[in-house]
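Note to self: keep these together.
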Amino acid sequence: MEEKSFFEKVYEIARQIPFGRICTYGIIAKHIGAPQAARMVGWAMNKCGSEKLYVPAHRVVNRKGLLTGKHHFANSNTMRELLESEGIEIIDDQIQNFEKLIWNPGIKDKRAK
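Structure:
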């Protein structure tokens, strides 16, 4: 069986982020066994538009809950608008209640249905 590429592993995790939740570049990097590769996760998110299966890149933010990837969308407001459409409050590019909204694929989510 062929080994998945780094980007494929990132996209697989990103597709699991529940609606109305967010994850960080670092959490994804750590989960796929590359804890020092948070920046590469960001590069993967930047390139995900060419994927056949949708990747919810808007749900991946930096470790402080800032929308640092917003400039990689067609419109710099798109990331915020997508997150707000999922009920996430954002003020000055900062996700509010960040700690409550964080999703970690390595921890059983009590909020999951």
